[in-house]
């Protein structure tokens, strides 16, 4: 029986997944297969085939590859940074064992079909670890190879999976007589992502989106980081654009397997000011959670994304002002007016 060509999105019910399905279905001629433990919103059901399942279910993966020939995989399934600190072993199982299982399946499929499966993996600023606030201020914008000393289980998982992906795309079966067709692993290190339609769960950059969505609902919000905490952020549409542009970049133009992408950096106080401009009667207070603050203080203030701009033409469409004025505020107003 011929395998059906398809695109696979794992973790499709998550924030990035939901935004990606919509855009991908507008541009892709291939059917989209989505895999997640959780159901996907019913308005997306007509543009993809959803499988409710666990990335750790090896029998499920084995069955999928007998039925489908994956051209392209977006592997988004993960436990985010704060949740992973409460369940480090589970985080390792999902974030690393899950990724390893999928890489192995994609490597075998690349060999069998005689052409690389493109494997897109979202990494994170969590892969970095700035030793102290002085260094964070001095080395304000970090390049991919700087300060790769993660201090969270999630950050360790992401950095290791970057190396696993490079292994499977360059060194897998390096001692065997015949060199197999390798998979084509490509990874992005994302900053904090802000969606107008979904709120993150279990992340540490969540204070931004949470503050905005609370204000839009007229609810007070106690921010769990200090006002002076600076992190890089990006509007969700730009995250989807980055994933799609990296996936379609010609392999010969990519000099790296891992790329920083970002749009704007701002302090939590700046974030509050942007939110207060849009929702003037908002009640935002700052009550730092010292433990989560420690994670934020270890992450870089800015990402240097020159390599992505140079190799595959990355450029965010939404800077700080466009993100709030043209994407977040108008769509959040609509979302909560109902
Ligand atoms: C988290 N939003 O906070 C995610 C992300 C930038 C960090 O990976 O865990």
What's the structural blueprint in terms of helices and strands?
Layout: E1 4-10, H1 15-27, E2 32-36, E3 49-52, H2 58-67, E4 68-75, H3 81-86, H4 88-113, E5 118-124, H5 133-138, E6 141-142, H6 153-170, E7 184-190, E8 192-194, H7 207-216, E9 221-223, E10 230-235, H8 236-248, E11 258-260, E12 264-267, H9 268-278, E13 284-286, H10 290-298, E14 302-303, H11 306-312, H12 320-337
Parallel strand pairs: 1-2, 1-4, 2-3, 4-5, 5-7, 6-14, 7-11, 8-10, 9-13
Antiparallel strand pairs: 10-12
Helix pairs in contact: 1-8, 2-4, 4-6, 7-9
The protein binds (3R)-3-hydroxy-L-norvaline.
Q: Would you tell me which CATH topology applies?
A: Rossmann fold
What is the CATH class? Alpha Beta
For the largest beta-sheet, the strand count, sense and barrel status come to: 7 strands, parallel
| The CATH homology group name | NAD(P)-binding Rossmann-like Domain
Report the count of strand segments: 14
Major sheet strand order: 3-2-1-4-5-7-11
Task: Give the ordered list of helices and strands.
Answer: EHEEHEHHEHEHEEHEEHEEHEHEHH
**Number of domain units:** 1
The CATH architecture can be named as: 3-Layer(aba) Sandwich
Which word captures the global form?
globular
Low-pLDDT runs of 5+ residues are none
Count the DSSP helices: 12
> Please, what is the average pLDDT?
97
Catalogue the ligands.
(3R)-3-hydroxy-L-norvaline
Strand content: 15-25%
């Amino acid at each position: 029986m011929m395998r059906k060509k398809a695109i696979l999105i794992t973790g499709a019910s998550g924030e990035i997944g939901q935004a990606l399905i919509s855009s991908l279905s507008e541009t892709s001629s291939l059917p989209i297969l989505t895999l997640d433990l959780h159901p996907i919103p019913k308005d997306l059901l007509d543009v993809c085939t959803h499988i409710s399942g666990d990335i750790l279910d090896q029998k499920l993966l084995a069955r999928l590859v007998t039925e489908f020939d994956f051209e392209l995989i977006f592997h988004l399934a993960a436990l985010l940074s704060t949740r992973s600190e409460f369940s480090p072993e589970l985080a390792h199982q999902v974030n690393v064992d899950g990724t390893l299982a999928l890489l192995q399946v994609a490597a075998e499929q690349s060999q069998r079909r005689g052409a690389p499966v493109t494997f897109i993996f979202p990494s994170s600023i969590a892969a970095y670890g700035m030793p102290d606030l002085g260094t964070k201020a001095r080395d304000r914008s970090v390049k991919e190879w700087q300060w790769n000393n993660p201090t969270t289980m999630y950050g360790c998982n992401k950095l290791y999976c970057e190396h696993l992906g490079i292994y499977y795309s360059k060194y897998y079966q390096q001692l065997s007589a015949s060199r197999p067709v390798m998979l084509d692993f490509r990874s992005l290190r994302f900053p904090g992502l802000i969606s107008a339609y979904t709120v993150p769960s279990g992340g540490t950059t969540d204070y931004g989106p949470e503050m905005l969505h609370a204000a839009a609902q007229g609810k007070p919000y106690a921010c769990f980081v200090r006002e002076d905490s600076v992190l890089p952020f990006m509007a969700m549409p730009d995250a989807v654009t980055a994933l799609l542009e990296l996936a379609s970049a010609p392999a010969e133009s990519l000099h790296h397997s891992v790329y920083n992408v970002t749009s704007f950096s701002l302090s939590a106080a700046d974030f509050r000011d942007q939110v207060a401009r849009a929702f003037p009667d908002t009640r935002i207070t700052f009550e730092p959670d010292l433990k989560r603050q420690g994670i934020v203080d270890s992450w870089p203030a800015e990402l240097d994304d020159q390599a992505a701009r140079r190799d595959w033409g990355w450029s965010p469409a939404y800077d700080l002002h466009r993100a709030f004025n043209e994407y977040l505020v108008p769509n959040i107003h609509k979302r909560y007016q109902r």
